[in-house]
Amino acid sequence: MWGVLLVLLTFLFRLPAFLNFGALDSDIAVVGLQSWHLGEGPSPLLLWGTTYQGVTAPVMARLVELLLPLRASLAVSSVLGHALLVLCLYGVLRQRLPSMWAALAAACVAVCPEPLNFLSYSAFRIWAFTLLFAGLYLAERSARAGAPARRLLLAVLAGAAVGLGYYTDLFVLQLLPGVVLYLLGWVWEPRASRWLALGGTLVGFGLGSIPRWLARMEAPQLSELSWSNLKHNWPLFWSKCLPYVTGTKLFATTTGFDRPEQVLEGAWLVLAVVGMGLFVGMAVAGGLLSLAPGTEWSARRLAWCGAAWVGVTLVGFLFTRRPQDVMSARYLVPLLLGFPLLVSPVLARLPRIQGTVWVSVLLLPVIAHFGVAGWRGYGGWVDHGLPRITPEGNGDDARTLLSALQQQGVEAAVADYWVAYRLTYLWKEQVTVAPGTGVNRYPPYPRRFASARRRALLFSAIVPGSRYLVPGPWEVRLRREGQPHERLTAGPYEVLLLK
């Protein structure tokens, strides 16, 4: 029952994302586009335009689209991954805690602040985390299996899930040290030797890593770490990204690009203070209890895993050059994913008779704080606490533009990166739009533009600083080159038709 409730909570919390399926950005749309062209592209085992992400997300998007041909199927495929992650987390915790306690701890990830919530419906990363948690769940089942053959089989499957997760997104690299600590705690558990199962886990990891080796993916190097990066990263970490990922600051967007800060005040401020106080206090207590002699090994190894995720994440953020702006808060989401594991020794120490009251007191304010921060993080998709469908979210702008282009016989177009793949996906490639800026993720689109008989340039004021912001400078250039063209307006877009 608790697992069903967690799945329902996970999906209902993403209702604004489902209703605004059309407001996806191009990074998300690429996953949907590649799901229609599996096996194509210069590197069939890589997500288009990347060297660090596999094709797990496009494969899952295609499967969901075939089974559930909904307009929001891409978002559904991503949230499905998050729901499975929550279920695996619940399954891991339930091995040691009562079902209700495990469900409350897992709910801290089912609802979450915007940086993790965005990943939960954005398709391109969540499946990597899901596979990692599936590996932990299978490893816990293996640790408790009685028959050696069953223990070995589950261990191989656990290793394979972690290997596939690492292939899905090399971001998982910063979570692997935690998995290693977990396995060490698994092996050192006094009740029984796990060396055979550990060997099976390593074999499984090798099998799951085959796609990564075939794709020749290259992980980040330790040489990226440098003390010199701390001076740049610390202010960004302390004043923006850490508060953003924990929900104590909110940078909610209405267009996808502007992110004004929302001020915490009134009851929301009180909830944030209480929720974060409990979050930090339980995390510290869990880390300390994981070293205490009387802590059970099953809770100890989970806390080691969560603590390692926290430590490696902080080191990676503070001492590399990857953090650039407030959106770099996504690099800190393991702080949220590791929290239920890290606090498991705290929950395991509570008395079973009155423990439910204490668990509720400790976790419900955290869940409420995360829920409010994540819900308000939807920005323009929520109005007075209720989901709201925007014109872009419903795809009205795309339909208006497509109708205008088809009336003019346009076969292909060029636009800013953040516009191009979104329109191509929403139009189901009836008219393809190649990116005039950023990364060219799928070469056939520019080739189609080059060979099209009727072409267009698309301009949108939504992308600040873009070359395709306004058509004026392009018209001057086309006149100078003697290129015939015609200008028209279609909804929020300006169009230059090339003749």
From TrEMBL:
User: Which residue positions does the secretion signal occupy?
Assistant: none
Q: What is this protein called?
A: Glycosyltransferase RgtA/B/C/D-like domain-containing protein
What domain of life does the UniProt record list for this protein's source? Bacteria
Q: Where are the transmembrane segments?
A: 72-93, 100-118, 124-140, 152-175, 195-215, 267-289, 301-319, 331-350, 356-378
The protein's UniProt keywords, in alphabetical order, are: Membrane, Transmembrane, Transmembrane helix
